Amino acid sequence: MEADMQKTILILGATGGVGGETASALLRHGWAVRGLVRGIRPGLDPAITWFEGDAMDRAAVLRAAEGVSAVFHAVNPPGYRDWDRLVLPMVENSIAAALANDARLVLPGTIYNYDPAVTPVAVPDSPQSAQTRKGRIRVAMERRIQDSGVAALIVRAGDFFGPKCGNGWLAQGLVKPGQPVAAIQYPGAPGAGHAWAYLPDLAETFALLLDRDAALPRFARFHFAGVWDADGSAFTGAIARAAGTTPTVKAMPWALLALIAPFNTTMRELREMRPFWQHPLRLDNAALVEFLGSEPHTPLDDAMRASLAGLGCIAPATA
Q1: Residue 5: CB partners within 8 Å, gap ≥ 6?
Q2: Are 9 and 210 in contact (CB under 8 A)?
Q3: What is the CA radius of gyration of the chain?
Q4: Which domains does the chain have, with CATH numbers?
Q5: Which of 5, 92, 171, 253 has the maximum number of C-beta atoms within 10 A of its C-beta?
Q6: Which residue range or ranges hold the NAD(P)-binding domain (predicted)?
């Protein structure tokens, strides 16, 4: 992108996994990137222009978004708390900011919009029959964006993993951050496929799509295929190879999660996602490939080495 054609984006959630990776990708693509954080502090990326404020404060969001070309909505209530009360007001503020600037609102979507028991393969316009609380909120978010008339880009993807993804299933379920990989706790039913999204590849996809904003429809939706593990063995095998060990693969103790869930918000949220580990749900990326020509893809072993290094499970030199 030429310097005189530089575009500006506000990223809500720029210190998080998908927001942080997308910020890095857009900076590489020549975008000017702004971030909104609750408090300016040492260690924030100096290449990003930081604004202080909360995503629940519409005035703060509007102030940070003044003059932008796009608003990237990658913010969620911390610790999975108060989703029912906070998620929709947050996205309403992002919609308002995008409309005020005739900017495109960008949303990283999920597989949770679908019922995996009845939708083994989902295309972008497959019926959204979410059976979980979080899934229904996700559907409501997308519906509100579409009904608002704002220019929008939604890219749905599988479960996130990557070097900066500290609260995904890899860290919260499969391995223990900061410790060598001695065992893998796998959530999936034997033989059930699962969709994963390596965040640097997803971030590059967002950057490529936004570089071609003029060619996008006003309401654009795509699916990111990412890593499709047909039976669970590809992901656990990559962990073992990256770790250089032969870890024991154990089943997730779902019954124990059920006992802990009433007293632990994170365990409650993880338990709600069990159907996505019992039934395969693959995202069809044909529309994305047709638009871009290809989907960014890092070999799984390389992606896993970087991810485990980011979690402190292997030395960075190994990655």
Answers
A1: none
A2: yes
A3: 19
A4: 3-165+195-228+278-298 (3.40.50.720)
A5: 171
A6: 13-159
